[in-house]
């Protein structure tokens, strides 16, 4: 169910955390869910991630689209304060993993699933050209 008060509270918290320097990158999950937001953030930054928290809402939760939910990276020395402020403000926050490297890795009960950012970029940038019968351009 949509809770506009909860969404506004979360949005205001996110804006304040960005302004205060705690959040270093942020993306909503409304189009494609958590996995798509993570892939888009990784492609934009060139930084991979390890997701080692249980899948939200089961495995399908990685692709569940919802408004008012954000995926954010938080500076290491800000994490505990960030979590405490979220809790005090009534904002639900869950740590999902860490950023780094050149792959996206999802640790799942049936084994790790990983994709190199270079492979992800080729698939992302080559999809429409391949669909239209043209050769994809690779990088700058």
Using the alpha-carbon principal axes, give the shape.
globular
Q: Measured on Cα atoms, how large is the radius of gyration?
A: 16 Å
How much helix, percentage-wise, in residues? 25-40%
Biggest sheet features: 4 strands, mixed
The computed structural class is alpha+beta
Mean pLDDT: 87
State which percent range the strand residues make up. Answer: 15-25%
> For the largest beta sheet, what order do the strands appear in spatially?
4-2-5-6
Task: Give a written overview of the molecule.
This protein has 140 residues and is of the alpha+beta class. Helices cover 39% and strands 21% of the residues. The chain has 4 helices and 6 strands, in the order αβαββαβββα. The strands form 2 sheets. The protein has a 4-stranded mixed beta sheet. Strand 5 (103-108) and strand 6 (111-116) form a beta hairpin. It starts with a helix and ends in a 9-residue tail after the last helix.
In short:
By secondary structure, the chain is of the alpha+beta class.
């Amino acid at each position: 169910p949509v809770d506009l008060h909860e969404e506004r509270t979360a949005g205001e918290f996110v804006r304040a955390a960005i302004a205060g320097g705690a959040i270093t990158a942020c993306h909503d999950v409304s189009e494609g869910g958590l996995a798509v937001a993570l892939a888009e953030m990784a492609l934009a930054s060139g930084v991979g991630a390890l997701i080692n928290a249980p899948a939200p809402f089961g495995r399908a939760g990685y692709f569940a689209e919802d408004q008012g939910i954000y995926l954010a990276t938080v500076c290491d020395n800000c994490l505990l304060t960030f979590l405490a402020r979220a809790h005090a403000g009534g904002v639900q926050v869950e740590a999902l993993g860490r950023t780094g490297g050149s792959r996206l890795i999802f640790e799942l009960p049936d084994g790790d699933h990983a994709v190199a950012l270079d492979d992800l970029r080729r698939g992302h940038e080559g999809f429409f050209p391949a669909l239209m019968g043209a050769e994809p351009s690779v990088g700058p």
